[in-house]
UniProtKB/TrEMBL annotation:
<feature type="binding site">
    <location>
        <position position="160"/>
    </location>
    <ligand>
        <name>Mn(2+)</name>
    </ligand>
</feature>
<dbReference type="InterPro" id="IPR019832">
    <property type="entry name" value="Mn/Fe_SOD_C"/>
</dbReference>
<feature type="binding site">
    <location>
        <position position="25"/>
    </location>
    <ligand>
        <name>Mn(2+)</name>
    </ligand>
</feature>
<dbReference type="InterPro" id="IPR050265">
    <property type="entry name" value="Fe/Mn_Superoxide_Dismutase"/>
</dbReference>
<feature type="binding site">
    <location>
        <position position="74"/>
    </location>
    <ligand>
        <name>Mn(2+)</name>
    </ligand>
</feature>
<comment type="similarity">
    <text>Belongs to the iron/manganese superoxide dismutase family.</text>
</comment>
<protein>
    <recommendedName>
        <fullName>superoxide dismutase</fullName>
        <ecNumber>1.15.1.1</ecNumber>
    </recommendedName>
</protein>
<dbReference type="GO" id="GO:0004784">
    <property type="term" value="F:superoxide dismutase activity"/>
</dbReference>
<feature type="binding site">
    <location>
        <position position="164"/>
    </location>
    <ligand>
        <name>Mn(2+)</name>
    </ligand>
</feature>
<dbReference type="InterPro" id="IPR036314">
    <property type="entry name" value="SOD_C_sf"/>
</dbReference>
<dbReference type="GO" id="GO:0046872">
    <property type="term" value="F:metal ion binding"/>
</dbReference>
<keyword id="KW-0560">Oxidoreductase</keyword>
<dbReference type="InterPro" id="IPR001189">
    <property type="entry name" value="Mn/Fe_SOD"/>
</dbReference>
<feature type="domain" description="Manganese/iron superoxide dismutase C-terminal">
    <location>
        <begin position="98"/>
        <end position="192"/>
    </location>
</feature>
<dbReference type="Pfam" id="PF02777">
    <property type="entry name" value="Sod_Fe_C"/>
</dbReference>
<dbReference type="InterPro" id="IPR036324">
    <property type="entry name" value="Mn/Fe_SOD_N_sf"/>
</dbReference>
<keyword id="KW-0479">Metal-binding</keyword>
Length: 196
């Protein structure tokens, strides 16, 4: 069954994200969905033809992780944004808040670390991961879609820091984009990811 692109048009009008930026970003995401399907179909064809030992098969096997993770990371990224944002409610202390305090010393320290990770030079993703085995949170820099993931950890909050995520609106002012990202976080989604 082929993957289908999800519709994130509900994000149009989000403060700090122009319509042009979002539409371009949605188109890029749709390309990952299409390419995930294409690579998957080609791999099935090569398998049926007995061409597993070919350079084409090897390169497509390597490429699949790039396309697939590009698709999924964008879905998680768009999924943890909402117009107007939904802040983490401090009235009811949630276990994720307590975990952030435990692992980073305070919520504020976690936020500083997440922002600083996103502001680093380079392209990639910033992901707040939860390692269920160690019961620990990490802010991780993922350089490429298919490199640097924590294999046994759950992605909770994802921020795209490839240039396409901000340059139309912010040029080289990545910290301004990060400010807008923080205003649009849907903490309800992050909490659901943590709870599951």
């Amino acid at each position: 069954m082929p993957y289908e692109a999800k519709n994130f048009e509900n994000l149009i009008g989000t403060e700090g994200f122009s319509e042009q930026l979002l539409k371009n970003h949605f188109t890029l995401y749709q390309g990952y969905v299409a390419n995930t399907n294409k690579v998957s179909d080609l791999l099935v064809t090569l398998l049926k033809e007995g061409k597993m030992g070919t350079p084409e098969y090897a390169e497509l096997k390597r490429r699949f992780g790039w396309e697939y993770n590009g698709m999924v990371l964008h879905e998680l990224y768009f999924g943890n944004l909402i117009k107007g944002g939904k802040p983490l409610q401090m009235k009811e202390i949630h276990p994720i808040y307590l975990q952030l305090e435990k692992d980073f010393g305070s919520f504020e320290n976690w936020e500083k670390d997440f922002r600083a990770t996103g502001a680093m030079r380079g392209i990639g993703w910033v992901i707040l991961y939860y390692d269920k085995t160690a019961k620990r949170l990490f802010n991780i820099w993922v350089n490429e879609h298919d490199i640097g993931h924590l294999s046994n950890a759950v992605p909770l909050l994802i921020m795209d820091v490839f240039e396409h995520a901000y340059m139309i609106d912010y040029g080289l002012k990545k910290p301004d984009y990060i400010n807008s990202f923080f205003k649009a976080i849907n903490w309800d989604i992050v909490l659901k990811r943590f709870d599951s």
